[in-house]
């Protein structure tokens, strides 16, 4: 049956509002809410035995892979190489014997990533794909597939499939951590608990729509926008910039907050919104001090944070959006939602074709 927009103006808006349900469905697939245990189906490789992991993807799926790298390295102490498929396929990287790879794709048909898959298999790698379309080429040709339970995604710019990819990768990181004896049952339970709280917090963030629309009104006037984040929120800063570019056609860059002083700081003036993803936690002080530097140069700091972080940031930020506070592990999933929502509202204000942005395709099946 054809998928409709229901009462929403755009598919993208509808799909943004599906975040809580999709996250719940995807997490339930891989996480037992009663025992707080990750339950993965049989994988094509043994995470306890591999020495390295390769992640390949394109677009937003690659940014999910970057978050996955932070998580897997941290929880499973496994070195991870994450690259865009178009680079990976021509890089001729040295691959370990019996090595393992994860491919991430909503459609499961993206040409560059299909080429990466064939190359990996020729090189004797065991390939697991994380896909949204069960009957896709990638799901069929991989040695194993984990499904994101996002349902059909129609808007060209990925939204719910992206957070569902994060949910699967979070479960994989926990599962790998346990398999490699890097995580205790207690740690596993604690991490699982924060993941299980994500859907209700996601719903609460969608309720903050009016606040994000106000921020969008400011951002819509800008010519350039800078997104900053650190750690696993750095890829989310990239996702914020990518979405804004794709659907509102405003030039945006995502940067690792600590790298700002090596470049983007030169762009900062009173015209450039600096959008920061800065939850409280171990990296808070570091990011906050980068933001203060931006503010000291006349930059307009607009921060997404939590109640604790807001205390310090409201001293110099022009706007602070207070998001629900959640265990550090789950913040990348949660913070993806307001940056996607922001891009959506900016695009609506600019009157662009939100669901079919110019020059872009939902699934890029040619190189
Ligand atoms: C296109 C879409 C993006 C998507 C990317 C990768 O560029 O516009 O939203 O992230 O392709 O697609 P895939 O289907 O492999 O996830």
UniProtKB/TrEMBL annotation:
Active site positions, chain numbering: 362
Location (main, coarse): cytoplasm
Annotated ranges, domain SIS: 43-182, 215-357
GO molecular function: carbohydrate derivative binding; glutamine-fructose-6-phosphate transaminase (isomerizing) activity
Enzyme kind, highest EC tier: transferase
One Gene Ontology biological process: carbohydrate metabolic process
Keyword tags: Aminotransferase, Cytoplasm, Glutamine amidotransferase, Repeat, Transferase
GO cellular component: cytosol
The enzyme's E.C. designation: 2.6.1.16
Reaction(s) this enzyme catalyzes, per UniProt: D-fructose 6-phosphate + L-glutamine = D-glucosamine 6-phosphate + L-glutamate
Superkingdom: Bacteria
rRNA-binding among keywords: no
Keyword set includes Amino-acid biosynthesis: no
Coiled-coil ranges per UniProt: none
Subcellular location: Cytoplasm
Description of how the protein assembles with itself and partners: Homodimer.
Function, as annotated: Catalyzes the first step in hexosamine metabolism, converting fructose-6P into glucosamine-6P using glutamine as a nitrogen source.
Name by which UniProt lists this protein: Glutamine--fructose-6-phosphate aminotransferase [isomerizing]
Organism ancestry: Bacteria, Pseudomonadati, Pseudomonadota, Alphaproteobacteria, Acetobacterales
Full-protein residues shown: 241 to 607 of 607
């Amino acid at each position: 049956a054809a998928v409709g927009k229901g009462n929403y103006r755009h598919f993208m808006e509808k799909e943004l509002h599906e975040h809580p349900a999709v996250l719940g469905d995807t997490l339930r697939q891989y996480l037992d809410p009663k025992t707080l245990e990750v339950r993965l189906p049989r994988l094509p490789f043994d995470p306890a035995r591999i020495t390295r992991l390769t992640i390949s993807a394109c677009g937003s799926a690659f940014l999910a892979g970057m978050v996955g790298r932070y998580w897997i390295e941290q929880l499973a102490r496994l070195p991870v190489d994450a690259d865009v498929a178009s680079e990976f396929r021509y890089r001729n990287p040295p691959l370990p014997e019996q090595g393992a790879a994860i491919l991430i794709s909503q459609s499961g048909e993206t040409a560059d990533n299909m080429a990466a898959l064939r190359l990996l298999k020729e090189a004797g790698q065991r390939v697991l794909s994380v896909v949204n379309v069960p009957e896709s080429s990638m799901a069929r040709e991989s040695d194993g597939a984990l499904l994101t339970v996002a349902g059909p995604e129609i808007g060209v710019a990925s939204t719910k499939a992206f957070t569902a990819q994060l949910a699967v990768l979070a479960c994989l990181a926990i599962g790998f951590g346990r398999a490699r004896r890097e995580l205790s049952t207690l740690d596993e339970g604690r991490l699982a608990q924060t993941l299980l709280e994500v859907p209700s917090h996601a719903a609460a963030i969608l309720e903050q729509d009016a606040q994000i629309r106000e921020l969008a009104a400011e951002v819509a006037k800008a010519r350039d926008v800078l997104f900053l984040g650190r750690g696993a929120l750095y890829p989310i800063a990239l996702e914020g910039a990518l979405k804004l570019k794709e659907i509102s056609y405003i030039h945006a860059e995502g940067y690792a907050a600590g790298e700002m002083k090596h470049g983007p700081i030169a762009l900062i003036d009173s015209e450039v919104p600096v959008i920061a993803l800065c939850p409280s936690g171990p990296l808070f002080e570091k990011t906050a001090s980068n933001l203060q530097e931006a503010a000291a140069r006349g930059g307009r700091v607009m921060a997404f944070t939590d109640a604790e972080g807001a205390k310090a940031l409201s001293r110099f930020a022009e706007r602070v959006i207070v998001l629900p506070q959640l265990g550090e592990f789950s913040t990348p999933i949660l913070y993806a939602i307001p940056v996607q929502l922001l891009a959506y509202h900016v695009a609506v204000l600019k009157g662009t074709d939100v669901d079919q942005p110019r020059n872009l395709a939902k699934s890029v099946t040619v190189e």
